[in-house]
Structures are given as structure tokens and as C-alpha cells.
Write a structure and sequence with these properties.
Layout: H1 11-21, E1 26-27, E2 31-32, H2 39-54, E3 58-61, E4 67-71, E5 80-86, H3 99-116, E6 123-128, H4 142-147, H5 155-158, H6 167-173, E7 189-197, H7 202-206, E8 210-216, E9 218-227, E10 231-232, H8 244-262, E11 267-269, E12 273-276, E13 282-283, E14 286-295, H9 298-318, E15 322-331, E16 334-335, H10 338-351, E17 355-360, H11 366-369, E18 374-380, H12 396-414
Parallel strand pairs: 5-6, 5-7, 7-18, 8-17
Antiparallel strand pairs: 1-2, 3-4, 4-6, 8-16, 8-18, 9-14, 9-15, 10-13, 11-14, 12-14
Helix pairs in contact: 1-3, 3-12, 8-9, 10-12
This protein binds (2S)-amino(hydroxy)ethanoic acid (HGY) and manganese (II) ion (2 copies).
Amino acid sequence: MSAPARIAVDPALVERMIRELATDGAHGETGVWRTVYSPEWVAAADRYAAWCEEAGLRTRRDAVGNVWGRLEGTDAAGDAIVSGSHIDSQRPGGQYDGALGAIAGLVAIRTLKERFGPPERPLEAVALCEEEGSRFPAANFWGSRAITGAIAPGDPDATIGYDGETIAAAMRAVGLDPARIPEAVRDDIDTFVELHIEQGPILEQAGLAVGIVNAITGIRHYVVELTGTANHAGAFPMDLRRDPMAGAAEIVSGVIATAHRMGRPAVTTVGRMEVSPNGPAIIPERVTFTVDARHPDPVARQVLYAKHEALMREVAARRDLSISWHTTFDQDPLTCDPAVVGLLEGAAAAQGVPALTMASGAVHDTQRMAARSRAAMVFVRSRDGRSHTPEEFSSVEDCVAGIEVLAAALHRLAY
Ligand code: HGY
Ligand code: MN
Ligand code: MN
């Protein structure tokens, strides 16, 4: 079918869905605390399934709890065109990260169904179960990894949460059987398009509501453990100490300085630290912290990691500390499918929505979905670039502009 005139999405529907989904795990005035397989997550998944049914989509849950709503195509054998994002959050996060993309896929397909009837190719909206790693630090992309067959048989029992529980136990607690994870694999997805808030300041600085993502950064998460000797904070002279806090301070400041010196787009963050025994008058025994380091260039990414690891070794050796680290998350950068990027750019132009083609500094399920499908993303402007905080906000007008671009793209792909 040729491209229709502008596709309009109902702003009231979009706003209602954003606010209602945010009640599942509401945290303070505007925050959301919704980790995978928690009661709040169950409520959100149920709500999304009810919305899919209300929209007349064939609704099902897969083996890891991803929720799917399918609009059948007239070409029964055609591979699906899929749009969605994750419904878990940071602890706490905001109302938009992930949630907006799950809503966007559903609203876009519902809008197309009401206006154009059945597509030629099947269209599916999806609420992916987990992306953030906020309950199980090594679980990132659990939903999209299941769909793409990237969860190994031993992973459910080896993926341990911050409270010591395995993800296998958490799945069983919500009625999912980890042994059935391979049943979630899909080989019949032609194209995946994820709408997401930008989570940074680029679109705002450009004065644009919408972006088209042509590349996504690579990322590695280290968990670093520095061990020294616990002793009295007053009685032990400085030159005789093995103080892991002094080593941690030097490493934290050093890895951050390394990313600064490499310059944009290298970024390194230390966001989590545990001190043991954590007393004001005790030289610590152990300091454990995370290092989140990202670069979109595959070669520069390895340079960044090599510099971080060299610094960690050098500081530990000089200060006579034991050091060990392991990686909980290591994801290559992605170049989005150029044909899908071009199609999204065309859809934005046809909708009269000026859009910036840009790279993503956040990681996304799209990176996993791209293993088995063509994939790209639509970004929506974030106010003040804020995200991973209850303060994140995107105006309904901006969300609608992004969803209209998404709907126009899905129309081009499926009708
Ligand atoms: O950290 C990330 O980039 C993603 O939002 N979880
Ligand atoms: Mn996200
Ligand atoms: Mn996030």
C-alpha cells in the first residue's frame, strides 16, 4: 500500500497509559520501582496484557514472561514486524524508560488496526520482561535474550540477585518454568523497531522532539573487589595500613578521569559501592564497587577497558591490596540496520516530524533483537536529558510525535 496521509495518534490514550502503567510500582510522586518478577512487575504485565486484549490483539505470554499482542496479517506465512520495549525499571527509575516503548508499540498497532484494518504482514506489540539488570545484575536483556536464544541452560541458576536469590527461583515464584526458556525463541521476526526516550540532552539541545537511532554504544560492567586489612582508625599509623578505601578512591577517580581524557563519547561511571564492615572508626576490610564503561567504537571500547584494568592492577599492587574483578555485563556496540534507519527517516519526513539521526549512549534490547531481525530505534526527547531517576519526563506532545513516526514506519513495513 502507498504511504497514507499523516497517521494521528490519540494523545489522551498515550497519557492515560503512561500514568496508569506508572501506578504499578509507583515510587514517590513520579518514580517507578518495578524489578522483574516482583509483584509490581506482575501487575504491569497483567495490565499490558489486558490492554492488548482490549485492542483486539491475540495476546500471550512467553516462557520468560514477555507479553505479546499480535495483529494477524493477510499473508499468514509472513514474518512479523514487532515493536516494544521493557517494563522493568531502575531502583528507582521514572515513568518512561522502557515503559514508553512498550506503550508505543501497542498504541501504534492499535491505531493502524483502527484506521487500516488487517495488515499484510503480522504486527506485534511486546512488553519485554527485563532489561535493566536492576534486581539481578547479570540478567540484562533477559527478555530479548530469551527471544534470541541467548540464555544458556545454566544461566537461570547462575544469575543471582542483590538479595542472593536466583532468577530461576524468582521465575518459579511467578509461575514460570526456567526449563522452558528455549520455547521463547522466535525465528519469525522480520523487523524490530523500539521506541525509547533518549535519556540524554542531544535532542533537547537540537530543539527536536524525535531522533532516529543508527548506532548503539557498547558497554561493560565490572564488579571490583579490593581487600586489605581491617584495623583501628586511630591506633594504626598511615604508612602501615592496607586500606582498600584508599585504593578504591584512587581507582574510582582514575577510571573516571580516563574516560574524561579520552573525550566524548567515552563514558565511565562508578554507581554502586559497598564498604565492609562500614564503620566510621574502622579501616575497611573490603570495598566492592561497580564500573560501567561505554564506547560505541569497538576498538576504542577495548582501549578504554585495557586502561581501566591496567590502573586497577597498578593501584592494588602499589598499595599491597588484593584485587579481583568479574564482568556481569558485556555488550558489543550495534550499527542499526541501514534500510530500517532509512525507512524511519522517510516515515518521519512523511509525518512532517523533523528528526535527528543519532547514536545512543544507553544500551537497549534492540542490541539483542538485532541478532535475529533487522532492527533500529526511534528516540523521544527527554526533558533536561534526565533518566534513571524519578525526574525523567517527556511531554505527551513529544511522545505522540515519536509514536506517530513509529506508526508510519510500521505501516510501511506491514501494509
Ligand atoms: O544503562 C542503560 O543504558 C540502560 O538504560 N539500562
Ligand atoms: Mn530502557
Ligand atoms: Mn534504563
